[in-house]
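Dear Dr. L.,

I hope this message finds you well. Following up on our conversation about the binding site, I have prepared a predicted three-dimensional model of the protein together with magnesium ion. For your records, I am including the exact sequence and ligand specification that went into the calculation, followed by the structure tokens. Please feel free to forward this to your student if that is useful.
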Amino acid sequence: MHIKKNSAVHDRRSVLKALGIGTASGFLGLLGGYSSARAAGNTIQHHTGGSLPSIKIRSVKAIATAPHGANLVIVKVETTEPGLYGLGCATFTQRAEVVVTAINNYMPDFCVGRDVDNIEDMWQSFFVSSYWRNGPVLNNALSGLDQALWDIKGKRANMPLYQLLGGKSRFAVDCYAHADGKSPEEVAVNVQKYMDQGFQHVRIQQGGYGSLYLAQKPDFKDAGFGRATDDFMDENAYLLAVPKMFKEVRKQCGENVELLHDTHERVQPINMINMCRRLEEYNPYFIEDPVSPENMDWFKQLRMSTTVPLAMGELFNNPNEFVGAITSHSFDYIRCHLSQVGGITPSMKIARLGEFFNVKSAWHGPGDVSPVGHAAQCHVDLAIWNFGVQESIEFSDKLREVFPGTPELKKGYFYVNEAPGHGVDIDEKMAAKYPINNHAGRWTIRRRDGTIIRP
Ligand code: MG
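The resulting structure of the complex is given below.
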């Protein structure tokens, strides 16, 4: 018995020793590019010790560009390792220059000299580094830093980011497209176009923000109230039009397509409940942003009143805002803006929480997310189990030129490349050709009498 015990201990030690050597060798074998040169120059003890050589942050800066009109902000983190840098999306289109200031004026002092490896520690410390927190701007800056550090970690490991997040749960990222139109018939024609391209999910809107096609010229314009550029919305016309649009699209396009719709939080909660009930017969995939964040208490009644699936959360700032909403099953799909909520680190936590409550992801992904941000989202989409659907855009040639490695959209699926990190780079000279603008944006929408409507 005594002899057997000793031998077992000896065997375990042999196995562990063998595993230790094997693991180090295997890991070194994965290194490529800049990292293989580093590995060759460093002693193997670094790796058998279980940690990578220390690399520090050398510089942090913002790169702002608007190749397709929307202001995009990127964080670039350079390191003490030659050639090793990371990129993250910090885009807040409507207030881009403020984010640039937050990055360029406050991040270097916070970041330079810190270890690139400790992403969680960096996230937690930056989150509270200004004492007051949870707002847009600083959260955007933090999102960019976080994504850039994950990019660096992937490059150090010589692995695409999804591998670091647990590997693939699916072969590609199922996306939804946006079908618009002045009439229900025009919307249906556009839905069919996307179905022909292979999309299984299409968001349908009869007019964009404010649904201008549905509103008469409002009285506040004649009265000279507000600004000439202010938009307007007729809530009643909108509430009547949406079920008609669903009816027409179902009639023309059939049942074999998932239909989504975004209310943009613009209508009264009780009216939203009534509209959702009318939409039940058209089997929507989800109705997005049914109420404004200030009206979250209405979700309980909304849930009790209708079985229409709901999506919410792109206006949330603090990851904690998702906790009560998910644990109370308030909605079915999480609409995080990964470049706003704090990056990959909090998004993975929110997604994992959702897994236990059968709440799925549907990350915010229109044109005001950069290709870097889209790639970061796609890597999370690939890794998590409770993925729902991903909002997509067709990236323009200009965007692809500025951002080499941008995800590819094929037959309704996003594909990331297999480069280490998130796989998207930036051509800074090209980016500089498309300066951002500082207009305040047309996000003012009024009722007929001029009252501001909250999104
Ligand atoms: Mg929305």
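In brief: The pocket of magnesium ion is lined by residues 262, 264, 288-289, 314 (CB under 6 Å).

With kind regards,
A. P.
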